[in-house]
Design goal:
Rossmann fold; 2 domains; 3-stranded mixed sheet
Length: 297
């Protein structure tokens, strides 16, 4: 079985690729450069240099595959059009085959909510408001067996969003301090990247067509707790500084900041019940204090 994987050189995609190869799966990865091709080939994938906006290439590779896991995204204003075109192209290759297609969404589409489930009403901030139209196409597709994965805040191996707490851009007070996102009272629902990779593979193998799974470990710390753990890891004696909404927007950009200011908690129970998923990666707070994000100095 050959799985077509997009985003294979990225943070989440490379974790999915590693686990697929550990299981002996054959993987074809679309990458945009020889450098990225070398990276995925070193992990055992067959690299195809091209772009996910090349509809003919995507359709051709989808036809040749036994299913597709889609993780690539530009992460900018073109994301909606790129994702929409990719779904159209991949369905042209998969429709009528009942092959598996796993699509990537995100936790922010549910907005602030203290107990998010897959059935919770969506209340997306502007940065992800475009997703639902495409996700409906995916979930309602005929002749393709589809699953949507909505990752929580992803961390692990010193990478991802948590770099905003550990990049050395500390506050301007009397002593260095980690800058919070807002006042830090909001919760973030989180998942270790290796646990999330396992969920993608379980969804590819076992997910029913039209299913949605939230990839959340059940660990939902406040941003203040995250910032304090980061301060310990950066040898800043637990020092954190609150920031106003306006200051946070100025630092991170309005759309990104508004997403990070959401107050979200989720348990990810459906994936455990339906797929047997068992997230057991390191705690986000431990990773910040003494793990992959901690200062080595």
């Amino acid at each position: 079985m050959t799985i077509l994987l997009t985003g294979a050189s990225g943070f989440i995609g490379s974790a999915v690729l590693r686990q697929l190869r550990l299981q002996g799966r054959d993987v074809t990865a679309i990458v945009r450069s020889p450098e990225k091709a070398a990276k995925v080939e070193a992990l055992g994938a067959t690299a195809v240099i091209g772009d996910i906006t090349d509809s003919e290439l995507v359709t051709e590779l989808a036809i040749a595959s036994d299913g597709v896991i889609h993780l690539a995204s530009p992460g900018d204003d073109s994301s909606r059009d790129v994702d929409d075109a990719f779904v159209t192209a991949v369905f042209a290759g998969l429709e009528g085959s009942d092959k598996r297609y796993v699509h990537t969404g995100g936790i922010w589409v549910w907005g602030s909510n203290p107990d998010i489930t897959e059935d919770s009403p969506r209340n997306a901030p502007p940065i992800t408001a475009w997703r639902w139209e495409i996700e409906k196409r995916v979930l309602e597709a005929q002749g393709v067996s589809t699953t949507l994965i909505a990752p929580a805040i992803v961390f692990g191996h010193g990478a991802g969003i948590l770099s905003i707490f550990t990049d050395g851009q500390y506050g301007q007070g009397t002593a260095p301090a980690v800058q919070l996102v807002g006042d830090g009272s909001q919760h973030w629902t989180t998942v270790h990247v290796d646990d999330l990779a396992e969920l993608y593979i379980l969804a590819f193998d076992l997910g029913e067509s039209g299913s949605t799974y939230i990839g959340a470990s059940g660990e939902n710390p406040t941003v203040r707790e995250i910032g304090e753990a980061a301060a310990v890891g950066q040898n800043l004696d637990s020092r954190v500084e609150e920031r106003s909404v306006d200051e946070t927007r100025a630092r991170l950009g309005e759309a990104f900041a508004d997403a990070l200011l959401l107050d979200q908690q989720a348990r990810g129970s459906a994936a455990r019940i339906d797929l047997g998923w068992e997230p057991n990666g390191p705690s986000i707070l431990d990773e910040l204090r003494t793990g992959s994000y901690a200062s080595k100095g």
